[in-house]
Protein backbone atom coordinates (compact mmCIF):
# COMPACT_ATOMS: atom_id res chain seq x y z
CA UNK A 1 0.00 0.00 0.00
CA UNK A 2 1.34 3.42 -0.94
CA UNK A 3 1.66 6.03 1.84
CA UNK A 4 -1.10 8.12 0.25
CA UNK A 5 -3.42 5.10 0.18
CA UNK A 6 -2.59 4.24 3.79
CA UNK A 7 -3.31 7.78 4.93
CA UNK A 8 -6.65 7.76 3.17
CA UNK A 9 -7.45 4.46 4.88
CA UNK A 10 -6.41 5.96 8.23
CA UNK A 11 -8.86 8.81 7.70
CA UNK A 12 -11.59 6.27 6.98
CA UNK A 13 -10.79 4.52 10.28
CA UNK A 14 -10.87 7.79 12.23
CA UNK A 15 -14.18 8.89 10.72
CA UNK A 16 -15.74 5.54 11.50
CA UNK A 17 -14.45 5.15 15.05
CA UNK A 18 -14.09 8.81 16.18
CA UNK A 19 -10.75 7.89 17.84
CA UNK A 20 -8.02 5.39 16.99
CA UNK A 21 -4.73 4.34 18.57
CA UNK A 22 -1.39 4.39 16.74
CA UNK A 23 -0.67 0.82 17.84
CA UNK A 24 -3.97 -0.46 16.46
CA UNK A 25 -3.34 1.31 13.17
CA UNK A 26 0.17 -0.15 12.98
CA UNK A 27 -1.27 -3.66 13.37
CA UNK A 28 -4.06 -2.92 10.92
CA UNK A 29 -1.67 -1.78 8.15
CA UNK A 30 1.31 -3.97 9.11
CA UNK A 31 3.74 -1.08 9.53
CA UNK A 32 5.70 0.32 12.45
CA UNK A 33 4.15 2.62 15.05
CA UNK A 34 6.64 5.31 14.01
CA UNK A 35 5.37 5.11 10.42
CA UNK A 36 1.83 5.61 11.69
CA UNK A 37 2.96 8.55 13.80
CA UNK A 38 4.46 10.18 10.70
CA UNK A 39 1.17 9.62 8.89
CA UNK A 40 -0.78 11.14 11.77
CA UNK A 41 1.52 14.16 11.91
CA UNK A 42 1.04 14.76 8.18
CA UNK A 43 -2.76 14.43 8.43
CA UNK A 44 -2.86 16.64 11.52
CA UNK A 45 -0.94 19.39 9.67
CA UNK A 46 -3.58 19.26 6.95
CA UNK A 47 -6.34 19.58 9.55
CA UNK A 48 -7.85 16.23 8.60
CA UNK A 49 -7.60 14.78 12.11
CA UNK A 50 -6.41 15.78 15.58
CA UNK A 51 -3.38 14.04 17.02
CA UNK A 52 -3.70 13.09 20.69
CA UNK A 53 -1.49 11.08 22.99
CA UNK A 54 -1.29 7.55 21.57
CA UNK A 55 -3.36 8.14 18.45
CA UNK A 56 -5.82 10.50 16.79
CA UNK A 57 -9.41 11.73 16.85
CA UNK A 58 -11.76 13.39 14.41
CA UNK A 59 -10.93 17.07 13.88
CA UNK A 60 -12.87 19.52 16.02
CA UNK A 61 -13.61 22.02 13.24
CA UNK A 62 -14.54 25.66 13.78
CA UNK A 63 -17.39 24.96 16.18
CA UNK A 64 -15.60 22.63 18.61
CA UNK A 65 -12.06 22.35 19.93
CA UNK A 66 -12.25 18.88 21.48
CA UNK A 67 -12.04 17.83 25.10
CA UNK A 68 -9.70 19.38 27.67
CA UNK A 69 -8.17 15.95 28.35
CA UNK A 70 -7.33 15.42 24.68
CA UNK A 71 -5.95 18.95 24.29
CA UNK A 72 -3.86 18.63 27.46
CA UNK A 73 -1.63 16.03 25.79
CA UNK A 74 -1.59 17.54 22.30
CA UNK A 75 1.58 19.50 21.41
CA UNK A 76 2.53 19.48 25.09
CA UNK A 77 6.24 20.19 24.52
CA UNK A 78 5.34 23.23 22.43
CA UNK A 79 2.89 24.48 25.05
CA UNK A 80 5.46 24.18 27.83
CA UNK A 81 8.05 26.07 25.77
CA UNK A 82 5.47 28.80 25.08
CA UNK A 83 4.59 28.93 28.79
CA UNK A 84 8.24 29.27 29.78
CA UNK A 85 8.68 32.19 27.39
CA UNK A 86 5.46 33.79 28.67
CA UNK A 87 6.61 33.41 32.29
CA UNK A 88 9.93 35.08 31.44
CA UNK A 89 8.02 38.28 30.59
CA UNK A 90 6.52 38.55 34.09
CA UNK A 91 8.06 40.91 36.65
CA UNK A 92 8.17 39.86 40.34
CA UNK A 93 5.30 42.12 41.48
CA UNK A 94 3.10 42.22 38.37
CA UNK A 95 -0.65 41.85 38.35
CA UNK A 96 -1.13 39.05 35.84
CA UNK A 97 -4.22 37.59 34.16
CA UNK A 98 -4.06 33.91 33.28
CA UNK A 99 -6.85 32.99 30.90
CA UNK A 100 -8.49 29.62 30.35
CA UNK A 101 -7.11 26.74 28.27
CA UNK A 102 -4.38 24.14 28.35
CA UNK A 103 -1.50 26.47 27.43
CA UNK A 104 -2.66 29.05 29.98
CA UNK A 105 -2.55 26.30 32.61
CA UNK A 106 1.08 25.66 31.65
CA UNK A 107 1.79 29.37 32.24
CA UNK A 108 0.47 29.00 35.79
CA UNK A 109 2.81 26.04 36.27
CA UNK A 110 5.73 28.02 34.82
CA UNK A 111 5.44 31.07 37.08
CA UNK A 112 8.92 31.63 38.53
CA UNK A 113 9.50 30.82 42.22
CA UNK A 114 10.36 34.47 42.92
CA UNK A 115 7.02 35.80 41.68
CA UNK A 116 5.23 37.66 44.48
CA UNK A 117 2.53 39.48 42.57
CA UNK A 118 -1.18 39.08 41.98
CA UNK A 119 -2.80 36.52 39.67
CA UNK A 120 -6.33 36.96 38.33
CA UNK A 121 -7.79 33.93 36.58
CA UNK A 122 -11.02 32.53 35.21
CA UNK A 123 -9.50 29.04 35.05
CA UNK A 124 -10.28 26.68 37.91
CA UNK A 125 -7.36 24.37 36.96
CA UNK A 126 -4.97 27.36 37.03
CA UNK A 127 -6.37 28.51 40.38
CA UNK A 128 -5.89 25.04 41.84
CA UNK A 129 -2.35 24.91 40.46
CA UNK A 130 -1.46 28.18 42.21
CA UNK A 131 -3.48 27.74 45.40
CA UNK A 132 -0.53 26.20 47.25
CA UNK A 133 2.02 28.84 46.20
CA UNK A 134 3.24 31.16 48.97
CA UNK A 135 3.57 34.83 48.20
CA UNK A 136 1.01 34.97 45.40
CA UNK A 137 -2.22 36.91 45.82
CA UNK A 138 -4.62 34.66 43.92
CA UNK A 139 -8.08 35.83 42.86
CA UNK A 140 -10.47 33.61 40.88
CA UNK A 141 -13.31 35.15 38.91
CA UNK A 142 -16.03 32.62 39.58
CA UNK A 143 -19.04 32.50 37.29
CA UNK A 144 -20.62 29.78 35.20
CA UNK A 145 -18.20 26.85 34.91
CA UNK A 146 -17.81 24.98 31.64
CA UNK A 147 -17.57 21.22 32.32
CA UNK A 148 -14.27 19.58 31.50
CA UNK A 149 -12.19 22.73 31.12
CA UNK A 150 -13.13 24.40 34.40
CA UNK A 151 -13.46 27.70 32.50
CA UNK A 152 -15.51 30.43 34.21
CA UNK A 153 -17.58 32.91 32.23
CA UNK A 154 -20.80 34.91 32.34
CA UNK A 155 -21.78 38.20 33.97
CA UNK A 156 -20.00 37.41 37.24
CA UNK A 157 -16.67 36.80 35.48
CA UNK A 158 -17.10 39.90 33.31
CA UNK A 159 -17.79 42.08 36.37
CA UNK A 160 -14.77 40.59 38.15
CA UNK A 161 -12.28 41.55 35.43
CA UNK A 162 -13.96 44.93 34.98
CA UNK A 163 -12.78 45.84 38.50
CA UNK A 164 -9.05 45.39 37.83
CA UNK A 165 -6.29 46.84 35.67
CA UNK A 166 -3.56 44.28 35.05
CA UNK A 167 0.03 44.59 33.89
CA UNK A 168 0.03 41.54 31.63
CA UNK A 169 -2.51 39.02 30.38
CA UNK A 170 -1.90 35.64 28.78
CA UNK A 171 -4.84 34.71 26.61
CA UNK A 172 -5.98 31.35 25.33
CA UNK A 173 -6.90 31.00 21.68
CA UNK A 174 -8.84 28.83 19.29
CA UNK A 175 -7.18 30.32 16.24
CA UNK A 176 -4.96 33.22 15.18
CA UNK A 177 -5.43 34.52 11.64
CA UNK A 178 -4.04 37.71 10.02
CA UNK A 179 -7.48 38.72 8.70
CA UNK A 180 -9.93 37.09 11.14
CA UNK A 181 -7.82 38.01 14.18
CA UNK A 182 -8.04 36.18 17.49
CA UNK A 183 -10.91 33.68 17.46
CA UNK A 184 -12.33 31.11 19.86
CA UNK A 185 -15.19 28.69 20.42
CA UNK A 186 -17.34 29.85 23.35
CA UNK A 187 -19.21 33.18 23.07
CA UNK A 188 -19.54 33.77 26.82
CA UNK A 189 -15.77 33.36 27.23
CA UNK A 190 -15.13 35.64 24.27
CA UNK A 191 -16.89 38.49 26.10
CA UNK A 192 -14.80 37.91 29.23
CA UNK A 193 -11.63 37.93 27.13
CA UNK A 194 -12.57 41.27 25.58
CA UNK A 195 -12.97 42.74 29.07
CA UNK A 196 -9.51 41.42 30.02
CA UNK A 197 -7.97 43.00 26.90
CA UNK A 198 -9.59 46.37 27.62
CA UNK A 199 -8.17 46.40 31.16
CA UNK A 200 -4.61 45.15 30.61
CA UNK A 201 -1.47 47.05 29.60
CA UNK A 202 0.11 44.18 27.63
CA UNK A 203 -1.86 41.22 26.28
CA UNK A 204 -0.16 38.16 24.83
CA UNK A 205 -1.97 35.45 22.90
CA UNK A 206 -0.81 31.90 23.61
CA UNK A 207 -0.95 29.88 20.38
CA UNK A 208 1.12 26.87 19.45
CA UNK A 209 1.93 26.65 15.74
CA UNK A 210 -1.05 24.39 14.98
CA UNK A 211 -3.37 27.33 15.76
CA UNK A 212 -1.72 29.82 13.43
CA UNK A 213 -3.80 30.50 10.35
CA UNK A 214 -6.81 28.80 11.98
CA UNK A 215 -10.22 30.49 12.30
CA UNK A 216 -12.53 29.37 15.12
CA UNK A 217 -16.22 30.20 15.08
CA UNK A 218 -16.29 33.38 17.26
CA UNK A 219 -14.14 36.47 16.80
CA UNK A 220 -12.53 37.93 19.93
CA UNK A 221 -10.66 40.91 18.47
CA UNK A 222 -8.39 42.07 15.65
CA UNK A 223 -4.72 41.30 16.24
CA UNK A 224 -3.77 44.97 16.59
CA UNK A 225 -5.70 44.91 19.89
CA UNK A 226 -3.08 42.63 21.49
CA UNK A 227 0.60 43.12 22.22
CA UNK A 228 1.87 39.98 20.56
CA UNK A 229 1.46 36.28 19.89
CA UNK A 230 3.64 33.77 21.73
CA UNK A 231 4.08 30.69 19.58
CA UNK A 232 6.71 28.09 18.66
CA UNK A 233 9.07 27.48 15.76
CA UNK A 234 7.68 24.14 14.70
CA UNK A 235 5.82 23.65 11.39
CA UNK A 236 3.52 26.27 9.84
CA UNK A 237 6.18 28.73 8.68
CA UNK A 238 3.78 30.09 6.04
CA UNK A 239 1.26 31.11 8.71
CA UNK A 240 3.97 32.77 10.80
CA UNK A 241 5.15 34.72 7.75
CA UNK A 242 1.60 35.85 6.97
CA UNK A 243 1.11 37.07 10.53
CA UNK A 244 4.47 38.88 10.54
CA UNK A 245 3.59 40.51 7.20
CA UNK A 246 0.36 41.76 8.79
CA UNK A 247 2.39 43.51 11.49
CA UNK A 248 1.80 41.00 14.29
CA UNK A 249 4.58 40.80 16.90
CA UNK A 250 5.55 37.12 17.11
CA UNK A 251 7.54 35.81 20.07
CA UNK A 252 8.78 32.32 19.19
CA UNK A 253 9.65 29.81 21.88
CA UNK A 254 12.65 27.60 21.19
CA UNK A 255 12.93 23.94 22.19
CA UNK A 256 15.85 24.58 24.56
CA UNK A 257 14.06 27.54 26.20
CA UNK A 258 13.01 31.01 25.13
CA UNK A 259 15.09 33.59 23.26
CA UNK A 260 17.88 35.34 25.13
CA UNK A 261 16.80 38.51 26.94
CA UNK A 262 18.85 40.57 24.44
CA UNK A 263 17.10 38.97 21.46
CA UNK A 264 14.81 41.55 19.73
CA UNK A 265 12.06 38.92 19.53
CA UNK A 266 12.03 38.75 23.31
CA UNK A 267 11.27 42.43 23.88
CA UNK A 268 7.96 43.40 25.29
CA UNK A 269 5.91 45.50 22.85
CA UNK A 270 3.58 47.69 24.91
CA UNK A 271 0.24 48.53 23.33
CA UNK A 272 -0.30 52.18 22.50
Structure overview:
The protein has 272 residues and is of the alpha/beta class. It has 2 domains: 57 residues, Winged helix-like DNA-binding domain superfamily/Winged helix DNA-binding domain (Arc Repressor Mutant, subunit A), CATH 1.10.10; 194 residues, Rossmann fold (3-Layer(aba) Sandwich), CATH 3.40.50. The chain is 37% helix and 22% strand. The chain has 10 helices and 15 strands. The strands form 4 sheets. Strands 6-5-4-9-12-14-15 form a 7-stranded parallel beta sheet, sandwiched between helices. Strands 1-3-2 form a 3-stranded antiparallel beta sheet. A 3-stranded antiparallel beta sheet has the order 10-11-13, covered by helices on one side. A hairpin with a 4-residue loop joins strand 7 and strand 8. Helix 5 packs across helix 6. The radius of gyration is 19 Å and the shape is elongated. The C terminus is likely disordered.
Task: Summarize the entry for a quick read.
By secondary structure, the chain is of the alpha/beta class. The protein contains ten helices and 15 strands. Helix 2 (22-29) crosses helix 3 and helix 5 crosses helix 6.
Low-confidence blocks of residues: 257-272
The residue-averaged pLDDT reads 86
Report strand order across the widest sheet: 6-5-4-9-12-14-15
Number of helical elements:
10
- Do you know the CATH architecture of the largest domain? 3-Layer(aba) Sandwich
Largest sheet data: 7 strands, parallel
N-to-C terminal Cα separation, in Å? 57 Å
What pattern of helices and strands is seen along the backbone?
HEHHEEHHEHEHEEEHEEEHEEEHE
Number of strand segments: 15
Please bin the fraction of helical residues: 25-40%
